[in-house]
């Protein structure tokens, strides 16, 4: 009895629902029309955990529904016909494969395979960058906020407030941060300035004050985090681990997200099923999670710098650090298409090493670069511009 | 075989036996001495081998330990003891280490018995090492023989194990050198000795596997020794001939070399050349042979001379005895010795003297007896006619005196009768005198067949004229020549008398056959009749003169026959049974 | 079953060793000479030359685009992108194509690139179409539809060149040939008027025919800047701190049966052979985990269905197939005598197949292309010359002596799969591994952009520059 291997290369578009449903129905139709009619069918999925696994499960569900609708007998154990679903990815894009084995046939020759290509959606948009240098100093710059002609710089022990006077920034005032006893290596921090004042977050320490000269800034130990995305502060908060240079907690409105590894940076973009999170873990792997924080994949080739940007019509983008052949860092914007990030546009070359990359809301990010030759730090405001 | 010959033979045999025994003893003792020497040399060589094995083994163990102690191996062991340790990184390590430490074979084996790296067979990584159970059991520094699988063949190697175990992790280093010609070349070989090594790696004997210190022997000839050791797994010593010449052979001692688990891995063979001993044996044998021949010649010569001294007198005696047997009774033997032989000769001479004496006396007695017999017969014969004479004369007297009228008749009768009787007497006398003056035969070549035919013709004409009681006269003559040395006339007489006798024996007629036949060294004449036959007593006396069974005749016929036959040095015999006829056989020697 | 699952997101896949400290924010510098050493040897660098030797063919793929350019080039997805032609249209029946040429392009001898030059070049060989110059535009017409015309125009054979008066071929690429000693040495000089700008390097000096050992020595002694690496050397080179450039798996290593019989016995034997191979052990150790084991002709990352061909070792099944043969099979496997990796793989195959019951005799071949007939089976290395599945499979089939079926709908992956499956049906060819092309570079080499080396085209030496002093720094 010939064995049928139906490989269906589904057109994976990011409108998952309609297309794959149709493909699943087509597969079901072909199985049902085989003569002689299979007495029993078992449907399996194959593959490693990831974004695809959930998609495969959905395909399986639809396929099973369709087969039942055509009055075929579906079983869990050994059956006359076994359908095994999996994804493949080639240069031309994704394929959905359904191997149909009538017997314990191992010969490839006897399998029937149908493959349908899914053309990858090429990004229609591109991103270009505009970079403007704001400030240089020898001390590390952990974060900065620019508002109009005001610039606040967060250093490991100090917050400086600068003013734009005659095309140059000059320090107007500053606050030393007390209760910050140990400056740690690779210092990190976050600065928020708004109408209520300023707040600085350092590992295990939170400093607050109003932004007026002469006012005081008080610091205290804390175990709370800060918003992950300024554009949507309630989405999640992240907390820097005390005494460390990484984050050890991420909380959503539903509470602490468990089983999440510690991470250096996080970025979030909109995906088809909700927010898609990119976390750069301590092993320098960038892990991708869906809205329920199930890991759906990993990205390779990214450094541990991540930031999100929202470009309105242009969509939601992740700015990620990438290295070129020389180990020289650059930034590239990725858009989430379907179930993976797709680069858009050119790469922003950098002269030094990125020490801080924070979203600034909207289409801006804050970039702190360290120049390896001089050892000094530079604060850049980077704007992402959508190009057609 | 003469006495001398026998004596010579005995002497010769004794000499040969003595020299053979001497040679044999010499051979045996020298062979034993050589063999002992040989054995000692082999033992010495074996000890040398074991020492070399030991030394090289220790060196190998030292190198293997050095490898195990090297930083490279320690780092390897540490790396592999970690959970993510990847043995694949070290696949080329063994080759480099083996080259560095001058080892033919080197394998690095992980704790679970899998080959991490192999110098001699790099592709074998990952496979379970064949000796993995032994690896765990052996102590560091143990040196042993092992069978090593190489890509193209199996080889036997001297192997050592060392462990690398920093903090309990196990890595085994297994290194060695192949047991081959190079190994053997380290051993100094005395002259005449050979060393062979046979690795037992194939199911049947294969001469190309042998390594030896020589080069042009036919190694196939070692097959029986090798197979014997393979079967019994014990030492075995045997002779191996390299060619047809027995001197070109070796005494080979084969020793099984075993590995761990008592497996027979190789066979070491020590050969010592037998050409010396064989040549010596040949030499001894040759000398023994020469000695034997010389001894025989000498012995025979001496014996001949000695025996001659002994046998000559005996021979003389023998000749003398021979002459006596031929009738020459006055033989004397002269022996000039004072020993038993001399006494024997004296006795012989005495004997012949006595024989002569007795013969004379016997002859005389016989002569007297014969004269007495003849006288008796004559008297008897004469008496017969005398009685009638007497009667007749008495009658005459009576007639004259009593009956004168009848006297004339009676006188006539009586005178007839007296004349008849006188004739008889005359005949008797004539026969007697004829018998007495039987002349010596004139011996000349005489053809018997001719004589027989003549006589047969003579009688045939007479017999034919008989009308009743016919006698059939036949002749059956020898086809070959029947010439004998005889007096033809006398033989004729013999025949005539025999035929007459036969005729007389068949008054009713019958068959008379005369035959001549070749017989022995002479001619046989047979006269057979189918007459009345003779009783045994008659047979006894038939040849006696004047004995007769007939009414008429003198009774001298057969005696004459006997006499003639005797003068011719022939023989005469009778075969007869009453009622069955008679055969007279006369045998005469050839001319 | 290998999941056709999630692969890397990044389209640019770079596998570079830890940087040796070139983290300075330097701008690329013009000038300098790049020294390149290869084992492969090219008699010439000309678009029309047909290269039989696999190593030379791979080298040609990398060097030719430095000197000669095509109208169209293929991007990392396998889609056509503008090169010497900037735009194109096609009729609906795909029988008539219209291409516009890029302006301002010059040949190395200064002559301008125009339609007539292109037409002359394209028509110098046999085509299934005609090429016309229509008012400065290139028009290509054919009797049959040409859906793959652009991909065809992207192949190196279609590089645009003109013949100089001296008879040499002149291209438009970033470098021009200054000197070429067949199979030994080549010197390429920067072309000042390249339409994308003069390359950074003044000169590329190519030394050919050096064995891998000597290349290594040259790199260590700083006598060269870029060398070829054999797959098994990549790992140790990385550990020694060298910078490595590796392509995606683009070379097929396979066993090819030289005289395949068609009887069931022959097929059973070849099937048993295929089932007895332990790719995993070879990949882990002899290849030091470089490349990937495979049973397909085209790599998984190109087709997406390569894993379907499966590659499980099944000794029991192999033995049961061998039991059907009249006697124990004996085969000789030929391999290129000078290829160390091929030798060690062949030796390991011999051992693995022996445990299945097939006696193998490794046979080194001095001239593999000429002497292949001496062995029953030959270990081949074949480069995959294009990312386009159709041309890649055609090229592989022709090099491996297989016949590709005629009517294949190349746009349908299913049809492509079936075509590939038909080629492998009888086990006349048994794919073993897909290997990457790897290179080690010296410390003075810098890249302006990430070299897209996983594509089948150039090493992009036009984007390379050399630093004057060696970088000082530690490996992080």
Largest sheet composition of chain A:
4 strands, mixed
Shape of chain A: elongated
Number of structural units classed as domains of chain B: 4
- In the predicted model, the low-confidence regions of chain B spanning at least 5 consecutive residues are none
Major sheet: arrangement of strands of chain B = 2-1-5-4-3
* Residues in helix, % of chain B: 40-55%
Number of helices of chain A: 2
- Give unreliable regions of chain A as ranges: 1-18
The chain-level mean pLDDT of chain A equals 79
Describe the structure in your own words.
The complex is a heterotrimer of chains A (388), B (591) and C (476). Chain A is mainly beta. Chain A contains two helices and 28 strands. Helix content of chain A is 9%, strand content 49%. In chain A, the strands form seven sheets. A four-stranded mixed β-sheet of chain A has the order 1-2-3-4, with helices on one face. In chain A, strands 5-28-27-26 form a four-stranded antiparallel β-sheet, with no helix packed on it. Chain A has a four-stranded antiparallel β-sheet with strand order 6-7-8-9, with no helix packed on it. In chain A, a hairpin with a 2-residue loop joins β24 and β25. In chain A, α1 crosses α2. Chain A is elongated. Chain B is an alpha+beta fold and 591 residues long. Chain B has four domains: 107 residues, PAS domain (Beta-Lactamase, 2-Layer Sandwich); 94 residues, Beta-Lactamase, CATH 3.30.450; 96 residues, Helix Hairpins (Orthogonal Bundle), CATH 1.10.287; 145 residues, Histidine kinase-like ATPase, C-terminal domain (Heat Shock Protein 90, 2-Layer Sandwich), CATH 3.30.565. Chain B is built from 13 helices and 17 strands. In chain B, the strands form four sheets. Chain B has a five-stranded antiparallel β-sheet. In chain B, strands 7-6-10-9-8 form a five-stranded antiparallel β-sheet, sandwiched between helices. In chain B, β3 and β4 form a beta hairpin. In chain B, α1 runs antiparallel to α7 and α8 runs antiparallel to α9. The longest helix of chain B is centred in the first third of the chain and has 67 residues. The model of chain B has no long low-confidence stretch (mean pLDDT 85). Chain C has 476 residues and is an alpha+beta fold. Chain C contains 13 helices and 21 strands. In chain C, the strands form five sheets. In chain C, strands 1, 10, 11, 12, 13, 14, 15, 16, 17, 18 and 19 form an eleven-stranded mixed β-sheet that branches. Chain C has a four-stranded antiparallel β-sheet with strand order 4-5-7-6, covered by helices on one side. A two-stranded antiparallel ribbon of chain C has the order 2-3. In chain C, β8 and β9 form a beta hairpin. The longest helix of chain C is centred in the C-terminal third of the chain and has 17 residues. The two termini of chain C are 38 Å apart. At the A-C interface, α2, β2, β3, β21 and β25 of A face α8 and α13 of C.
């Amino acid at each position: 009895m010939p064995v049928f291997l139906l490989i269906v290369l589904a057109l994976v578009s990011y409108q998952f629902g309609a297309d794959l449903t149709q493909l699943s129905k087509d597969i079901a139709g072909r199985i049902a029309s085989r003569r002689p009619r299979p007495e029993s069918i078992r449907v399996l999925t194959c593959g490693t955990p990831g974004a695809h696994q959930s998609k495969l499960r959905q395909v399986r569900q639809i396929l099973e529904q369709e087969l039942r609708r055509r009055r075929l007998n579906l079983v869990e154990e050994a059956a006359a016909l076994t359908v095994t679903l999996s994804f493949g990815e080639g240069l031309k894009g994704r394929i959905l494969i359904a191997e149909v084995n009538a017997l314990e046939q191992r010969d490839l020759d006897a399998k029937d395979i149908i493959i349908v290509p899914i053309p990858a959606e090429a990004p229609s948009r591109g991103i270009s960058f505009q970079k403007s240098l704001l400030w240089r100093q020898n001390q590390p710059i952990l974060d900065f906020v620019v508002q109009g002609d005001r610039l606040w710089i967060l250093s490991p022990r100090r917050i400086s407030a600068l003013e734009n006077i005659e095309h140059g920034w000059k320090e107007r005032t500053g606050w030393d941060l007390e209760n910050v006893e140990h400056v740690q290596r690779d210092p990190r921090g976050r600065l928020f300035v708004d109408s209520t004042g300023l707040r600085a977050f350092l590992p295990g320490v939170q400093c607050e004050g109003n932004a007026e000269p002469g006012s005081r800034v008080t610091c205290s130990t804390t175990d709370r985090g800060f918003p992950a995305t300024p554009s949507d502060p309630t989405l999640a908060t992240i907390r820097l681990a005390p005494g460390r240079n990484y984050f050890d907690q991420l909380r959503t409105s539903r509470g602490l997200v468990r089983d999440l590894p510690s991470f250096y940076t996080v970025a979030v973009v909109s995906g088809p099923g909700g927010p898609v999170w990119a976390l750069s873990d301590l092993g320098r792997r960038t892990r991708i999670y869906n809205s329920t924080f199930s890991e759906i994949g990993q990205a390779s080739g990214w450094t541990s710098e991540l930031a999100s940007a929202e470009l309105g019509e242009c969509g939601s983008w992740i700015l990620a650090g990438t290295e070129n052949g020389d180990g020289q860092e650059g930034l590239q914007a990725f858009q989430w298409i379907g179930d993976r990030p797709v680069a858009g546009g050119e790469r922003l070359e950098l002269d030094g090493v990125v020490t801080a990359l924070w979203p600034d809301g909207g289409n801006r990010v804050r970039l702190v670069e360290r120049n390896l030759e001089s050892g000094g730090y530079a604060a850049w405001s980077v704007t992402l511009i959508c190009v057609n | 075989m003469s006495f001398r010959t026998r004596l010579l033979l005995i002497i010769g045999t004794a000499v040969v036996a003595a020299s053979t025994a001497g040679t044999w003893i010499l051979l045996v003792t020298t062979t034993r001495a050589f063999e002992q020497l040989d054995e000692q040399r082999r033992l010495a060589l074996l000890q040398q081998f074991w020492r070399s094995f030991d030394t090289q083994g220790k060196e190998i163990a030292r190198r293997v330990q050095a490898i195990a102690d090297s930083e490279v191996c320690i780092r390897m062991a540490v790396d592999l003891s970690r959970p993510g340790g990847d043995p694949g990184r070290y696949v080329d390590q063994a080759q480099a280490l083996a080259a560095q430490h001058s080892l033919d074979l080197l394998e690095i084996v992980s704790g679970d018995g899998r080959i991490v790296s192999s110098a001699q067979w790099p592709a074998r990584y990952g496979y379970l090492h064949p000796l993995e159970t032994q690896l765990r059991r052996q102590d560091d520094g143990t040196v042993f023989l092992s069978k090593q699988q190489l890509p193209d063949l199996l080889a036997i190697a001297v192997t050592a194990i060392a462990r690398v175990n920093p903090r309990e992790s196990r890595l085994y280093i297994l290194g060695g050198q192949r047991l081959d010609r190079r190994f053997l070349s380290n051993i100094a070989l005395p002259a005449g000795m050979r060393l062979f090594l046979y690795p037992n790696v194939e199911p049947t004997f294969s001469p190309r596997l042998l390594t030896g210190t020589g080069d042009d022997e036919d190694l196939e000839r070692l097959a029986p020794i090798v197979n014997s050791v393979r079967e019994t797994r014990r030492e075995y010593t045997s002779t191996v001939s390299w060619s047809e010449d027995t001197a070109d052979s070796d005494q080979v001692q084969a020793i099984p070399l075993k590995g761990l688990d008592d497996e027979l891995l190789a066979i070491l063979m020590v050969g010592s050349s037998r050409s010396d001993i064989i040549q010596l044996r040949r030499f001894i044998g040759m000398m023994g042979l020469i000695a034997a021949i010389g001894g025989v010649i000498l012995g025979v010569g001496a014996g001949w001379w000695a025996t001659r001294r002994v046998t000559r007198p005996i021979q003389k005696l023998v000749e003398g005895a021979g002459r006596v047997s031929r009738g020459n009774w006055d033989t004397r033997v002269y022996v000039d010795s004072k020993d038993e032989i001399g006494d024997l000769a004296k006795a012989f001479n005495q004997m012949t003297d006595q024989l002569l004496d007795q013969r004379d006396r016997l002859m005389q007695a016989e002569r007297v007896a014969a004269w007495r017999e003849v006288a008796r017969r004559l008297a008897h014969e004469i008496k017969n006619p005398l009685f009638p004479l007497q009667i007749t004369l008495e009658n005459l007297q009576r007639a004259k005196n009593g009956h004168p009228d009848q006297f004339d008749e009676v006188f006539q009768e009586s005178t007839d009768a007296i004349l008849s009787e006188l004739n008889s007497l005359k005949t008797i006398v004539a026969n007697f005198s004829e018998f007495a003056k039987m002349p010596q035969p004139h011996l000349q070549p005489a053809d018997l067949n001719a004589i027989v035919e003549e006589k047969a013709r003579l009688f045939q004409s007479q017999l034919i004229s008989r009308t009743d009681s016919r006698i059939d006269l036949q002749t059956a003559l020898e086809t070959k020549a029947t010439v004998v040395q005889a007096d033809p006339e006398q033989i004729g007489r013999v025949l005539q008398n025999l035929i007459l006798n036969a005729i007389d024996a068949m008054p009713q007629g019958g068959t008379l056959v005369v035959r001549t036949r070749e017989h022995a060294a002479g001619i046989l004449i047979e006269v057979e009749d189918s007459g009345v036959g003779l009783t045994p007593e008659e047979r006894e006396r038939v040849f006696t003169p004047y004995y007769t069974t007939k009414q008429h005749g003198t009774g001298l016929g057969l005696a004459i026959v006997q006499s003639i036959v005797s003068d011719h040095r022939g023989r005469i015999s009778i075969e007869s049974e009453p009622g069955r006829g008679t055969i007279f056989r006369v045998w005469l020697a050839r001319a | 079953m290998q999941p056709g699952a999630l692969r890397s997101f990044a389209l640019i896949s770079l596998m570079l060793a830890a940087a040796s400290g070139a983290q300075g924010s330097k701008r690329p510098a013009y000038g300098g000479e790049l020294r390149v050493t290869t084992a492969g040897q090219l008699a010439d660098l000309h678009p029309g030359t047909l290269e039989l030797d696999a190593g030379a063919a791979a080298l040609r793929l990398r060097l030719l685009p430095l000197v000669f350019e095509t109208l169209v080039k293929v991007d990392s997805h396998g889609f056509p992108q503008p090169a010497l032609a900037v735009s194109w249209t096609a009729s609906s029946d795909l029988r008539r194509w219209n291409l516009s040429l890029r302006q301002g392009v010059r040949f190395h001898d200064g002559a301008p690139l125009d339609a007539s030059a292109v037409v002359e070049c394209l028509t110098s060989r046999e085509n299934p179409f005609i090429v016309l110059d229509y008012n400065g535009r290139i028009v290509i017409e054919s009797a049959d539809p040409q859906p793959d015309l652009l991909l065809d125009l992207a192949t190196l054979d279609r590089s645009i060149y003109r013949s100089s008066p001296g008879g040499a071929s002149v291209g438009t690429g970033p470098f021009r040939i200054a000197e070429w000693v067949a199979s030994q040495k080549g010197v390429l000089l920067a072309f000042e008027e390249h339409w994308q700008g003069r390359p950074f390097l003044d000169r590329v000096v190519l030394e050919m025919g050096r064995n891998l050992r000597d290349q290594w020595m040259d790199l260590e002694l700083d006598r060269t800047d870029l060398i070829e690496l054999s797959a098994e050397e990549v790992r140790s080179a990385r550990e020694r701190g060298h910078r490595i450039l590796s392509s995606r798996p683009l070379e097929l290593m396979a066993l090819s049966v030289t005289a395949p019989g068609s009887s069931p016995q022959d097929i059973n034997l070849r099937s048993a052979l295929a089932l007895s191979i332990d790719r995993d052990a070879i990949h882990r150790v002899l290849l030091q985990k470089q490349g990937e084991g495979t049973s397909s002709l085209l790599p998984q990352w190109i087709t997406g269905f390569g894993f379907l061909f499966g590659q499980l070792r099944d000794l029991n099944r192999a033995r049961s197939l061998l039991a059907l043969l009249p006697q124990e099979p004996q085969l000789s496997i030929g391999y290129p005598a000078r290829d160390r990796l091929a030798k060690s793989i062949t030796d390991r195959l011999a051992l693995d197949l022996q445990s299945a019951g097939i006696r193998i005799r490794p046979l080194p071949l001095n001239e593999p292309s000429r002497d292949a007939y001496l062995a029953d089976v030959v270990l081949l290395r074949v480069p995959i010359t294009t990312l386009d599945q159709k041309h890649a499979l055609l090229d592989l089939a022709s090099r491996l002596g297989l016949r590709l079926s005629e009517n294949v709908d190349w746009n349908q992956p299913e049809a492509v799969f079936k075509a590939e499956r038909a080629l492998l049906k009888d086990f006349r060819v048994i794919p073993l591994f897909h290997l990457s092309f790897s290179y080690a570079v010296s410390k003075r080499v810098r890249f302006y952009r990430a070299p897209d080396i996983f594509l089948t085209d150039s090493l992009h030496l036009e984007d390379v520059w050399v630093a004057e002093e060696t970088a000082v720094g530690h490996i992080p």
